[in-house]
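Bug #77: duplicate submission created two jobs. Keeping one. Sequence:
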Amino acid sequence: MLKSYMMKKILLLIMSVFMVSWLFSQSLELFYEGELMDPLDEITLTAHPDSGMMIIDTLDVKNISSATLDVICVREILETIEGAVNTFCWGGQCYPPFVDTSSTPTTIAPQAISYEFSGDHSPNGFVGITKVKYTFYNMANPDDNTIIIVNYDASETNSIKDNSAQYSLSKAYPNPANNFVSVDYYQKGNSEARIAIFNLLGSKVKEIELAKSFGTLTINTSDFIEGIYFYSLLINNEASQTQKLIIKH
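Kept job's structure:
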């Protein structure tokens, strides 16, 4: 009896040491909209199936260690809906739907935060939930990682208002863009409409008023710094649709 009790105490002690060692070995933390996430936390984005691209771009990765780290992002699609398209950006590059691991790491200095990640999902009119796991790991030690799960919920019954019949904003072309990029737009009615472009930090870098209710807008991007941007169709100062733009000179 005493021997069994001592064995249990030893096992508990070993497990405690292991857990403490594991916690202190982790160099990465995730923040969603500025809030610290627990490992394997889940985030849910909701939109109507016809509402266009669903974007998670406020998921930030912090290096809490005292060393500079090269961090890789791995995407794993746990569940999906046939016809939907899922992609992600990391390390200054955006990857096609069939690529799950970033070929380029993001270098994060000690105690610094990377804002480079974005996860993009296009329901393409199909109803259902796509569940995606994102793992961010230290290239020097893949066991040093942090994980989050995102549920892209394209449901007919969610509370997001469907403006697809009233407004539309096309994907940019060409994308990546160099000196010029074009987008097609449509807005029903006589609302005040503009297209605004934002960088990854959410700062507005350009805004153009739309004189017509539909047409093609060509934008000079020669003075843009290379990187990832987002552009929105603003109707009466509210974003009706948002798409992603990549600048490469």
